[in-house]
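Researcher: Sequence recovery benchmark, item below. Answer with residues only.
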């Protein structure tokens, strides 16, 4: 998902083995860890998140086998306000492994 254009695109071979940028936990206002799945009813199952600077991309399902929901959460809200990202019908799934490199 390109946050500037709002467009989805597939990226092949972008992640290295044994490294992952996704997480099921976030950091709260008081610097405590919290489970994303407890933050919003639409992501109770399979919650994962990727920090994108001021925003966090969070995905998950409301129930086992349910459709994946995708949300942007502003870091200033600490997991309180979820902005829905509308996913195209042909969306084939979320990356199950990944990596992150900060330079």
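Model:
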């Amino acid at each position: 998902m390109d946050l500037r254009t709002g467009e989805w695109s597939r990226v092949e071979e972008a992640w290295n083995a044994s490294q992952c940028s996704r997480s099921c936990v976030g950091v709260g206002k008081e610097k405590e860890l919290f489970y994303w799945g407890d933050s919003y009813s639409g992501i109770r199952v399979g919650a994962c998140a990727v920090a994108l600077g001021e925003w966090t991309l969070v995905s998950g399902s409301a129930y086992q086998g349910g459709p994946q929901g995708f949300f942007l959460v502003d870091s200033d809200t600490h997991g309180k306000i979820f902005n829905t990202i509308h996913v195209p019908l042909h969306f084939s799934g979320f990356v199950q492994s990944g990596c992150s490199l900060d330079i």
